[in-house]
């Protein structure tokens, strides 16, 4: 594990986020990752196989867990496809890497070096151990760093992504740091939940999600304002709202449900919350 000399968490809020994820051992993240050793901290996309609900007892539970993991792995694969053509000599940054699953997939897909960062020491240690067990720790490394001020050199990265981690930071500060780190023409991709600013402020369901994850969900329009202000040109926007609903419907029926499934489904169905992929190039 590597870190910069100055404190990683710069505010009381950032420290509370680090404390939350340092203490987190939620089965919805761990049991799904146990399926094949890819540990994610995001949601899924695509239709699920309804036959997984037909079994009983432990067999039914295992089938549901495996299907949920398939959907969350499909989500990260979808994100990585939008990075474009990445060669084996490139370097990528996973900003807000969680337990590292997407970074591993990126290395498998492109064969290049990948760095992941998190303000959670527990996540960084876990992810580095997984890379070591896979024998890829020379190419995939995780660091205890702040995504708003990483300490990496300017222009070092061909691509950067945030997979469901932008809701913990100020978007202008984040995209300014990403613009600094990306080489000219480099690409940024995010998949994120955002509230529908055409319907007003945060709905009750969106506020419940904020409270559950101690985050601050941004308005949809704020992403495009902050990207443009920091020299990014959006090249692809995909609304994944309908594609993620089946994941939440299946999760609600699983043994790893946490109680937040209802607010997610309500927010998506009523239109107050959107699940988007945004890909943007640094000009």
Kindly list the characteristics that best describe this protein.
SAM-dependent_MTases_sf; EC 2.1.1.255; eight-stranded mixed β-sheet; methyltransferase; Methyltransf_11; alpha/beta; transferase
What can you tell me about this protein's structure?
- The protein is an alpha/beta fold and 283 residues long.
- Helix content is 43%, strand content 20%.
- It has 10 helices and 8 strands.
- The chain has helices at residues 12-23, 27-33, 57-81, 101-110, 121-134, 171-181, 204-213, 220-229, 241-252, 261-270; strands spanning 2-3, 91-95, 113-118, 140-144, 157-163, 182-195, 232-239, 273-282.
- An 8-stranded mixed β-sheet has the order 1-4-3-2-5-6-8-7, with helices on both faces.
What would the average pLDDT be, to the nearest integer?
96
Poorly predicted ranges: none
Strand order of the largest sheet: 1-4-3-2-5-6-8-7
- Biggest sheet features: 8 strands, mixed
Amino-to-carboxy terminus distance: 33 Å
Based on Cα principal axes, name the global outline.
globular
Give the % helix. Answer: 40-55%
**Chain oligomer state:** single chain
Following the backbone from N to C, one meets helices and strands in this order, namely EHHHEHEHEEHEHHEHHE
EC number: 2.1.1.255
GO molecular function, one term: methyltransferase activity
Keywords: Methyltransferase, Transferase
InterPro entries: Erg6_SMT_methyltransf, GPPMT_Stmyces, Methyltransf_11, SAM-dependent_MTases_sf
Please provide a brief summary of the model.
The protein is an alpha/beta fold.
């Amino acid at each position: 594990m590597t870190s910069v000399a100055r404190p990683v968490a710069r505010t009381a809020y950032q420290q509370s986020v680090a404390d939350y994820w340092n203490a987190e051992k939620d089965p919805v993240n761990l049991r799904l990752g146990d399926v094949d050793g890819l540990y994610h901290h995001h949601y899924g996309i695509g239709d699920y196989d309804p036959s997984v609900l037909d079994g009983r007892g432990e067999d039914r539970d295992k089938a549901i867990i495996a299907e949920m993991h398939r959907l969350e792995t499909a989500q990260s694969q979808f994100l990585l496809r939008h990075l474009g053509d990445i060669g084996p000599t490139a370097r990528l940054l996973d900003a807000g890497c969680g337990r590292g699953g997407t970074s591993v997939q990126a290395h498998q897909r492109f064969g290049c070096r990948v760095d992941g960062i998190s303000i959670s020491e527990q996540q960084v240690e876990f992810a580095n151990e997984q890379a070591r067990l896979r024998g890829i720790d020379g190419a995939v490394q995780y660091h205890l760093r702040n995504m708003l001020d990483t300490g990496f050199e300017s222009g070092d990265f061909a691509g950067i992504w945030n997979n469901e981690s932008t809701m913990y930071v100020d978007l202008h500060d984040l995209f300014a740091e990403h613009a600094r780190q990306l080489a000219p023409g480099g690409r940024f991709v995010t998949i994120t939940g955002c509230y529908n600013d055409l319907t007003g402020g945060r709905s009750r369901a969106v506020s419940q999600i904020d409270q559950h994850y101690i985050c601050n969900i941004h308005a949809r329009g704020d992403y495009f304002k902050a990207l443009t202000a920091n020299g990014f040109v959006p090249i692809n926007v995909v609304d994944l709202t309908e594609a993620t609903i089946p994941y939440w419907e299946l999760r609600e029926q699983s043994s790893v449900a946490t109680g937040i499934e209802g607010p997610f489904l309500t927010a998506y169905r009523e239109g107050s919350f959107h699940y988007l992929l945004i890909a943007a190039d640094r000009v």
